[in-house]
């Protein structure tokens, strides 16, 4: 029971992390997308 809850929580956390990262990426992408990509890569 505890292990299953931990797995579900982990999956939800990962999904929320990707969602938040995607939102932040699109928010920054509207300003300067090419310069951000050049700096990170």
Descriptive keywords:
elongated; mainly alpha; about 40 residues; 1 helix
Description:
This is DUF3789 domain-containing protein. The chain crosses the membrane at residues 6-24. Keywords: Membrane, Transmembrane, Transmembrane helix. With 41 residues, this protein is mostly helical. Helix content is 95%, strand content 0%. The longest helix has 39 residues, at 2-40. The protein is elongated, with a radius of gyration of 15 Å. The termini are far apart. The relative contact order is 0.09.
Shape type: elongated
The CA-CA distance between the termini, in Å, is: 42 Å
Query: What is the arithmetic mean of pLDDT?
Result: 84
Radius of gyration: 15 Å
Beta-strand content estimate = under 5%
* Distinct helical segment count: 1
Q: Give the low-confidence spans.
A: none
Q: Helicity, in percent?
A: over 70%
Beta strands, count: 0
Give a short account of the largest sheet: none
Structural class: mainly alpha
Q: H/E element string?
A: H
């Amino acid at each position: 029971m505890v292990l299953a809850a931990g797995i579900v929580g982990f999956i939800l956390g990962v999904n929320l992390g990707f969602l938040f990262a995607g939102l932040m990426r699109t928010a920054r992408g509207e300003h300067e997308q090419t310069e951000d990509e050049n700096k990170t890569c």
